[in-house]
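User: Predict Butyryl-CoA dehydrogenase's structure from this.
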Amino acid sequence: MPYLISEEAQDLLQDVRKFCENEVVDTCIEADKTGEWPRELYEKAAEQGYLQLEIPEEFGGVGLSRIDVAALFEEMAKADAGFATTISASGLGMKPVLIAGTDEQKQYICDLIMDGGLGAFCLTEPGAGSDASAGTTTAVLDGDEWVLNGRKCFITNGAVASFYCVVASTDKSKGVKGLSMFLVPATAPGLSAGKEEDKMGIRSSNTTDVVLEDCRIPASNIIGKEGEGFKIAMQTLDQARAWMGCLSVGIAQRGIDEALKYTKERVQFGKPIIKNQSLQFKLADMDIKTEVARQMVANALTRMDEGLDYSRESAIAKCYASDIAMEVASEAIQAFGGYGYSREYPVEKLLRDAKIFQIFEGTNEILRIVVANNLMRR
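Assistant:
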């Protein structure tokens, strides 16, 4: 394992690898065909404690470093990016509370995850993608309750989450400074999920609209202060981008592994095709770029653990790693030749899975703006 991880994480990594080989790969191949969310798989993952990896130790977690968790997430993404996305997106749903919530809110969501639940983060709307400030979801205080109305879209775990962190406007006249963040239980009246998206890739994850129709939650369910929702959301995404880079590395590593195995076995002109220097160079470039991406992820996560600034580093990690995942997946298909284009072989799926990582948690175009803004502030 290229990450330098603790002994505890090394033991967990072996367990995760076996679980992925025995439970994840075949189940997710079938889910990729049908588009059905494999609930039983995630129940088994919860029993193994894999949903709880990002829970802080003081709230019942195992106390792993972010680098330790990255090694486990990469292994999951190698097996299936949709499986890893579901678990990582649940951690995304936790982050606003862990960043700005009360101890009671933190314990509440951690208990739900410990019991096998999932979280979801609700920012994107049909008319508000990269421009998150254009959202129209509202929250109005009515006595001792907030009443939420609006529609969020492309929400990972949208129909299966136990709780949602929702961005809504509490004062439209203030623009982004009028946005607030709310903790919404799945049981809240007026909350529902829309139709599941028929996606190109990561088809073993659940993606739906989340609809709020006079959805009532206690006034105490605001996360942080009124008007801090946009800031909390951006802090959340700054963290989440490094994890999306981590999953992208897992996709790329799977592409390398599959291409290496195939080119050693495939014989043309009387010798394995890996004996051709052109393919050796191709594989070397795939490995070089994937390792650079992995170390960019490690750098961002280490800075988080050390309490240092990481916005730029997280943006770089996600942007570079997702671009490399697409490139490596494409090169893996090329190494397979015509077989790579067939769904009977594993590499075409990698390309379909990789594409979304250039889009969600901030498109790579937006992330280049983030990096450029950091440069201009120097």
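The radius of gyration is 21 Å.
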